[in-house]
Amino acid sequence: MPKKMLTLDGNEAAARVAYRLSEVIAIYPITPSSPMGELSDQWASQRVANLWGTVPRVIEMQSEGGAAGCVHGALQAGALTTTFTASQGLLLMIPNMYKIAGELTPCVFHVAARSVAAQALSIFGDHSDVMATRATGFAMLASGSVQEACDLALVAHAATLEARVPFLHFFDGFRTSHEVSKIEVLEDEDLRALVSDELVRAHRERALSPDRPFIRGTAQNPDVFFQAREAVNPFYAACPQIVERVMDRLAERVGRRYRLFDYVGAEDAERVIVMMGSGAEAAHEAVEALAAAGEKVGLVKVRLYRPFSFAHFLAALPPTTRALAVLDRTKEP
Prior knowledge:
By secondary structure, the protein is an alpha/beta fold. It has helices at about 10-20, 35-45, 65-75, 85-90, 95-100, 130, 145-165, 190-195, 195-205, 220-230, 235-255, 280-290, 310-315, and strands at about 5-10, 25, 55-60, 80-85, 110-115, 140, 165-170, 180-185, 260-265, 270-275, 295-300, 305, 325.
């Protein structure tokens, strides 16, 4: 069966997947993620159905903090919920992100990564916004191209339901969010093949309901609070393997293979660059050209940044590696 090809940008590539896998979409516009919310609002007004035949409810709040609160509330009611944001908007969502992760609630935030204003405002891309959320408990999945934004959006939505760890799926603002590219889009059948109806039902059954009373949002003293924090460890330990299995199932379905850490370059590389995001695409071409010329160089593309699997990272490196250059897109004083 011929694959469907479309020319679109990174924002639309991610939004096409997120819309079809959601029932509630809480939005507030912020550059460069605004088109994801705008497209979702447009599709809902046109009565475009999601994967289960219903039209997602798109709700625009008064701020990103309100959007995150809406997401949290909808999740507690058992709805499949998502949002889109960037920069300071993501920072306003941090309090609710701690709650969503602490309650082990499946969810995906799609982020067009952008600089957080420091000495001046910048609407362009670095990773200072997503790096500010590392401690929230969200898994972090990085895309480096428009095709990856489409594919890994599905990986995030499928993995979060099984792992019960919420995901932050991000790609570089403007460089990927607004890059127009011809890609192979995912059909509804591809989404159904990866998203388990059984796991969707399990998410619904965890909803707060008078029919199944359950208490959340209590106050705890330090002894109990710390034990509860430790209780999440098995979920995070299992998360990398879950993401890996979802990536394998995607490869079987569409033929595009992703790994938690993708290596390219010489098999006997001694110098290896470690990167994530759109910069890895340019580095990929440079490494291939240098390796073809006999240079012992390589590149590791980081896909799953949190939880960081050291075992998978080390397995991706050639045993001949002598030096690593980790290229970060964040200034942390």
